[in-house]
């Protein structure tokens, strides 16, 4: 089975098309500008004192540019080293059933947060990674529009589309999809979900500080990564994962903006 349709990727006997030649270096290229920015700001404590009226729009524009760069890298990976479309390479498609799957994932993740929250608070005060600027318009842009309509789809393409699929494809091509008795193994599927979820969680470390806050954010982000990873793997597409991710970002934004 060498087709990279939804059904093919979701199958236990998935065999990636030979035309797929993108790899983890493309993922690093997609996130490199963000890594550089985080290192400069966090490690070297570089700050631009622009004031709120200038600083907030600049921060919003920077976010859009960074996500735009990631999207360009994804397109380039698909065109130059893949099957030629985000659909065929990374599962960029949706079906009506994905709305229900996303809703179920959101409910499950809220249940998980009821356990993670108290656990994190037992280590100290927990701060949120969602912050108001005092400007209602720009709060709406930075907390509602960008996280829901930009961050969610691009991050799912990056982490569940490119990274997770590459891990599974690499393991299959290394022969790790077969046990010693010759039977198919689900190791590549599970490993790709868990490893990509771990990277997804680590990628959000810069958003908070303090042991309790880091623990809370990392555990919840990892849980989202695992849930979306299995959604994307079992369905072979990103529709439900994007829906769940966007819905959670939307709920977090509305809860803060309505205060």
SSE layout and pairing:
Elements: H1 6-10, H2 24-43, H3 52-81, H4 86-90, H5 97-121, H6 136-173, H7 187-202, H8 211-235, H9 239-257
Helix pairs in contact: 2-3, 2-6, 3-6, 5-8, 5-9, 6-7, 6-8, 6-9, 7-8, 8-9
Can you tell me about this structure?
- The chain is 71% helix and 0% strand.
- It is globular, with a radius of gyration of 19 Å.
- It has helices spanning 6-10, 24-43, 52-81, 86-90, 97-121, 136-173, 187-202, 211-235, 239-257.
- The mean pLDDT is 90.
- The protein has 259 residues and is mainly alpha-helical.
Q: What's the Cα radius of gyration?
A: 19 Å
Give the overall shape, derived from the CA principal axes.
globular
Overall mean pLDDT stands at 90
Instruction: Report the span from N to C terminus.
Output: 52 Å
Helical content, roughly?
over 70%
Largest sheet: none
Structural class: mainly alpha
Q: Report the β-strand fraction as a percent range.
A: under 5%
> How many distinct beta strands?
0
Number of helices: 9
Unreliable runs: none
* Secondary-structure element string: HHHHHHHHH
